[in-house]
Design a protein that fits this description.
alpha+beta; single chain; nine-stranded antiparallel sheet; Gamma Fibrinogen, Chain A, domain 1
Length: 366
């Protein structure tokens, strides 16, 4: 919302000698529903600042996949992403190589997966320590964060499903690629509209592939069992192709994406295969590839007067640019920003709006 008023410019006569305005900009909840891909192409300053390559938080892309599509030479590494469902830009680790790239790492670790909805371990370390022996301690994002990364896309609708990358020897020099495609809605079964880590409880899988070989129906609980209501028989895989996620089947409940048999390994801190007497648990990474191609900063929540349906970023800039071009703006203030601890995006957008207005005023005075 803008409030524009003419003010006198003279020595007490009250007579208007030149048009002048004071601009007051009220931050409202939907004032800055700005999409990174929505910024005007002829706006050279903005285009130079927000590029969506994920290199810094201000350049956040919509997803690892989006960054890879826009910047094909992007290597594996950490990037900043933000979807409309995420409150603020988030630093993640992206696999930009496998099968065309664009994968986001949502969890990794060796033994000790507990499958909580709130996530597990030091979640910030997922981006900074994606692999290696320092990554053996389990870390997994919360269900809420993963839903945000998916932009609330149904997990059972992901084209590439859930990708597991498991070590197939205890030195970490050989790896296996497993794809779990979650079963979608069917009569009596609602599918998965939200993310869950409840793999140990058993989730129906529409299909499974291992290193490109398809094995049909299965479930996340055990590759050799069938769940009640499962629409097809599990493949009853063995050795390093098998999986077992139910923690009660592992000593001290230190389970994970186990092999369901003793295939080797030990309890050493450097072994990619953990084994303490029953089943081998390999180091595993969990990847998703949400194909989100449009990034948008969410509406500003850090305000005292939420107003649905407010003006979008480009609309506000167009209005302010016009005002500053037509009138002699002698001052402005930005109000109603109520910072929320830990949420920096609204503060950044308010600062950006401030310097944009300053730029329009300076341009007029030249």
């Amino acid at each position: 919302m803008t409030n524009i008023q003419d003010v006198t410019n003279g020595s007490g006569s009250g007579r208007r000698r030149s048009p002048a305005v004071i601009v007051s900009v009220l931050l409202i909840a939907s004032l800055v529903g700005v999409g990174i891909v929505q910024l005007q192409q002829d706006d050279k300053v903005e285009a130079a600042i927000v590029v969506g390559d994920g290199t810094i938080s201000e350049h956040a892309g919509a997803s690892c996949w989006s960054i890879k599509q826009s910047y094909p030479n992007s290597p594996d590494g950490t990037y900043w992403v933000q979807t409309p469902a995420l409150i603020a830009p988030m630093r993640v680790y992206c696999d930009m190589t496998t099968d065309g790239g664009g994968w986001v790492l949502v969890g990794r670790g060796r033994d000790g997966w507990n499958w909580p909805s709130t996530g597990q371990g030091v979640q910030s370390a997922i981006a900074t320590t994606p692999s290696g022996t320092d990554a053996f301690g389990v870390a997994a994002y919360s269900n809420k964060i993963i839903d945000g990364l998916l932009n609330n896309t149904r997990p059972d609708s992901l084209d590439d499903g859930i990708r597991l990358r498991r070590a197939t020897n205890n030195t970490g020099t050989s790896w296996q690629d497993i794809r779990w495609k979650l079963e979608g809605p069917r009569p009596g079964f609602g599918g998965r509209d939200k993310w869950t880590w409840a793999f140990g409880a058993g989730i129906s899988l529409d299909s499974v592939s291992i290193n490109g070989v398809s094995y049909g129906k299965a479930n996340t609980y055990f590759s050799g069992s069938n769940l009640t209501g499962q629409t097809g028989a599990s493949p009853n895989l063995t050795g390093v192709n098998a999986w077992m996620t139910y923690n009660n089947n592992f000593p001290n409940r230190r389970g994970g994406f186990g092999f369901n048999s003793n295939t080797g390994g030990n309890t050493a801190a450097t072994s990619y295969w953990y084994y303490n007497g029953t089943r081998t648990v390999p180091f595993t990474q969990v990847w998703l590839r949400p194909k989100i191609s449009e990034a948008a900063q969410p509406a500003i929540p850090a305000t005292g007067t939420p107003e649905p349906g407010g003006m979008l970023w480009n609309d506000v800039l167009d209005l302010l640019r016009e005002v500053c071009g037509r009138k002699n703006v002698i001052g402005f203030d930005l109000v109603e920003l109520a910072p929320i601890p830990g949420m920096v995006a609204p503060d950044f957008l308010a600062a950006r709006l401030t310097y944009r207005i300053m730029g329009y005023v300076a341009q007029k005075s030249r």
